[in-house]
Structures are given as C-alpha cells and as structure tokens.
Amino acid sequence: MVPIISNFATSTPDQGGLFAALGIDWKMLILQIVAFLLLVWLMGKFVYPWLMKSVDERQAGIEAAIKAANEAKATALHTEAQVEKLLAKARLDASDIVATAKLESAAALTASEEKARKRSDQIIADAQAEINKEVIAAKSALHNETIDLIALATEKVVGKTISAKLDNELITDTLKAIK
Amino acid sequence: MAIRLSRRKIASYIASRLLSVKDDTAVLQELAGYLIDSKRTNELELIVRDIEYELQNRGVVLARVTSATDLTKATEEAVAKLVQDHSGASKVYLQQFIDTDLIGGLRVDLPGHRLDATVARRLATLRANYKK
Question: Which 103-132 residues of chain B touch chain A by CB within 8 A?
Fold first, then answer.
C-alpha cells in the first residue's frame, strides 16, 4: 500500500494540463479527497454520534445541575426568609413570654408577700390572743390565790383570837339576825 | 326469829313509845334488841334519823348544835327558842358538840334542815363565790 501511494505521489506532472501547471497532483488530490471523505464518514458514523451524545449528556447534566443549583438557591433564599420570619416571630414570642413571665412573677411575688403578711398578722393575732388568755388565767389564778390567802389568814387569825365570850356574842348576833 | 318490819313502822313505834313513857332507856334497849335479833344493826343510823323525823312530826325536835366553844346558858336558850320558832315544835332537845374546825359561830342540824352560821362556812363561801 505504502509503495503504491508513494509511487502515485511521485509521478511526473507532465502528463496533466492545468493541475500540472498549478503544481497539483490530481491523483494525490483524489486520494486525499477519498481519504478525507472516508475519515468524515468514519467520524460521522462512529465518533461524532458518541461524542455528541456525550456532549448532550454533559450539557443536560450541567443544565440540570444549574437548575438544581438555582432551585437550591431559591429554596435557600426562601428558607432564609422563613428562618428570618421564624426568628422574628420567635423573638416576639420570647419577648411576650418574658413579659408574661415578669408579670406573673410579679403577681406571684405580690401574692406571696400578701400571704406572708396575712400569715404573720395571724401569727401575731394568735400570739396576742394566747398572751391575753394567759394574762387572764394568771390574773384569775392570782385572784384565787389571794382569796385563798385571805381565807387562810382570816382562819388563822380568827382561830387564834376568838374567845368563848366573843364566840357567844357572835352566835347571839347571828341568832338575832336570823330572827 | 323476829318479824322484819319496815323502818317507818319501827320509827313510828319507837317515837310513840318515847313520848309515852318516862324511862326512855327501856325503849332504846328494846330497839337495840330488835335490831340485833333481826341482824339490822347496820341500819341504826337510818332508823335513828327516821325516829327523829317521827318525833318532829309529833312536835318534838332534836337539834344537834355544833360550835367551836361551849355555849352559855343564854345562848342555848336562844338557840332552843330559834329552833322552836322555826319548826313550830312544842319541845326542843339540844344536843351540843364541840368542833374547833368551825373556828366560830354555830351549826344547827335538824331533821331535814341545817343552819350553818359558822366562820368556817363563811370562809368556804368566800372561797367558792369569789373565786374565778
């Protein structure tokens, strides 16, 4: 094959007209055209479809990736907005909760203070009543002891000082009083 | 074995006997004998009290006078007169007792009644009435 091509290429140009004048070897040209067409056919038959398919797939993949990226970006933006919204709402809720908690704690504190005050007042009142009761009991006991002492002293004094004469006078006076 | 009589019948019988006879010792012996025979000596105090009631109903009163010191004759007479006026009895017998715990004054016990004008009683009243 190589010798044939080589011979074909090295043939003298004196046999052609125009091509020879232009320095073109028409055999070589035809051979090159055939080779080119064969190459084109081979490329179109086997390489180009595969290449195009690969390129198309690659393009589709890139487009899908771009679309997915755009969607992701949109989703991210939407999510970010939602997050911001949720954060704002959460801040508002937290603020409300804190305010409510403050109010409730203040109310609870006031209620507990009031309860403690009432309890202390009750304790003081009970203690006062108990003290008063004890004072009354002590006064009563003192009174009773005084009565006992008076009676005992009277008994002792009268028992020692009373004479038969005095006793008879007392009896006589008593009998007169009864009459 | 003696017939069991009621205390009221015994008291009525003994009272009528005491008022009708001059020697009351025989009557009392008769009573004692009956109580011993009927084994009722433990009822002696109740029977004596019933006899006193019977005597009081018949105009004879036995008054127990208790004082811290001896009573003079005049005081005794005054007490007897008081008892006579109070009970309407025709005859009053005084039985005197001494109790120094009474301190002063006198206490007269009649069947169903008591007159307590002792100093001890007044002190007890003071304790009872003025104590809180």
Answer: 103-106, 115, 117, 119-120, 123-124, 126-127, 130-132
Give B71's contacts in chain A (Cβ within 8 Å): 168, 171
Instruction: Compute CA distances A57 → A50, A62, A64, A66, B119, whole Å.
Output: 10, 8, 10, 14, 140
Closest to A164 in 3D by CA, of B73, B92, B122, B62: B73
Number of structural domains (chain A) is 1
Alpha helices in chain A (DSSP H): 2-9, 18-22, 26-42, 48-161, 164-178
Find out whether B94 and B76 touch, Cβ atoms under 8 Å. yes
Contact A172 B78 (CB under 8 A): yes
The count of other CB atoms within 10 Å of the CB of residue B131 is: 15
What would the two tokens of residue A131 be? Answer: 């003290």
Question: Which residue segment(s) compose the domain that A8 sits in?
Answer: 2-178
User: Which residue does chain A place closest to B71, by CA atoms?
Assistant: A168
Please report the ipTM that was assigned to this predicted complex: 0.71
| pLDDT tens digits, one per residue of A92-123 | 999 999 999 999 999 999 999 999 999 999 99
CA distances from A84 to A28, A88, A96, B87 (A): 76, 6, 18, 118
Chain A partners within 8 Å of B129 (Cβ): none
Whether residue A162 and residue B119 make contact (CB cut-off 8 A), yes or no, is yes
pTM of the model: 0.53
Q: How many residues does chain A have?
A: 179
CB contact under 8 A, A178 and B82: yes
Instruction: Kindly list the domain boundaries of chain B, sorted by start residue.
Output: 7-56, 59-130
